[in-house]
Hints:
The chain is an alpha+beta fold. The protein has five domains: 3-83, Arc Repressor Mutant, subunit A (Orthogonal Bundle), CATH 1.10.10; 89-143; 166-331, Ribonuclease H-like superfamily/Ribonuclease H (Nucleotidyltransferase, domain 5), CATH 3.30.420.10; 344-413, no CATH class; 425-459, no CATH class. 41% of the residues lie in helices and 18% in strands. It contains 17 helices and 18 strands. The chain has helices at 19-30, 35-42, 46-58, 63-68, 71-78, 89-95, 98-105, 112-122, 129-143, 202-216, 244-253, 269-286, 294-309, 320-328, 415-424, 428-438, 440-450; strands at residues 3-6, 12-17, 156-161, 166-169, 176-179, 181-185, 192-196, 222-225, 232-235, 240-242, 256-259, 344-349, 355-358, 363-366, 375-380, 384-389, 392-398, 406-407. The strands form six sheets. It has a five-stranded mixed sheet with strand order 7-6-3-8-11, with helices on both faces. Helix 12 crosses helix 13 and helix 16 (428-438) runs antiparallel to helix 17.
Amino acid sequence: MFVPHFNKRGTMANKPITMTQIRRIIQLKAEGASNSHISRTLQIHRSTLNTYFFRLASSGKSVSALLAIGDEELGKLVYCENNTQKPVGRFQELKKHFAHLQSELSRTGLTRLLLWQEYRIAHPDGYGYTQFCEHLGRHRKILKATMHLHHDPGMYLQIDFAGKSLSYGDRFTGELIRCPVLVCTQPYSGYTYVEALVSARQEHLFCALNRCLEFFGGVPRNILSDNMKQYVVKNDRYEFTFSEIVDQWSVHYHTNLEATRPRKPKDKPSVENSVYHSYLRIYARLRNEEFESLAALNRRIQVLLQEHNQHTFQKLPSNRREQFHEEEQPLLQPLPAEAFLIRRKTRAKVQMNYHVVLGEDRHQYSVPHQYIGQQTSIIYTEHTIEIYLSLTRIATHTRCYRKHGYTTLREHMPQNHRAWQEHLGWDADYFVAVGEKISENAIEVFNRVLASKDMVEQSYR
């Protein structure tokens, strides 16, 4: 229970005085202390003390009786309604409009200044702009109350894409390639997995989730994501329809999939917090570093991620990694024998340059030149390309995501193209290397021929 008191200047300070101080006033008065002594000791103005003494005396109770009663009853004796700040009429009027003002602020272009101007037109004697913002801010703060959530170990994995991407430079073209970043978190321990992806498409997302579960060494009972389009086909706020491939993935790993409500990031607060920490402990450290491939970028991310997971908690003696391995990992379900693999299929005609185009990446892959003009089937995964003619596999390649690029095997080329390619590779070092395979005399002959012209190229062309 609190009552107001006056400051030393004799004006109302509106600062609370506790019941402990009231009891101390009673004790000092019972000991025979003067009002001046009590005022100096407790830092309370003498006129305020006189008010308290009058109210206590008016109760008709003895000192021992006053000290024996509870705080609530004692507060009623010294409490004076006239000293409390009652909400004035204009505040009550403003309070009626809080809900409307809150909804208006969510609309495009609406500002507090415009709402205040409209408020003053309707209420000329209303609050000024500063107090208007102060009261409205207090109301909005109450609406942002947070709730502590309890997480059981091994029950959930929360996943999300970071709002900001990372990048690496293509070593062939110099192009700066942006890549989305997947963040996965075990809410109980905070143990986190981070990986940069080629794209956010399904084949890359689910392959990354495969590696995520391998990183954790097990499968949680439930996996929670936001309303990402790779997951959810239809969302009716509390009812979700997942795509077929998502259902296949969940069956393969024997886990349950859930999605948050649209535009409700607080439904997955743990991974949102992990995204924030990834900005602080991974993104910030990478800001001045350059990488020539996605693999190099992810290797660096893993180093920084390990440091993050081993970073000691501020108020606990352990860290994320220790807590996960000691309390959470033993409760995870075992991984299946094989990882889930997404295979996609498309068709392409072999062009005159004996290549087929994978339209998804706009990259060309070679096949034996004798199949020019034939219609082929391309079966591809995240890392491999297989090209079939009917049921016969005629070529395999490692998948490359470089747009408008070519992946060509020498054995697929016609003989004259091989000779031309070999000719393009001729230089002084090439002939010396050929001479080394023959004899020392051949090396001497080649060197003399190469030195016979002012320009080396003229000696063999």
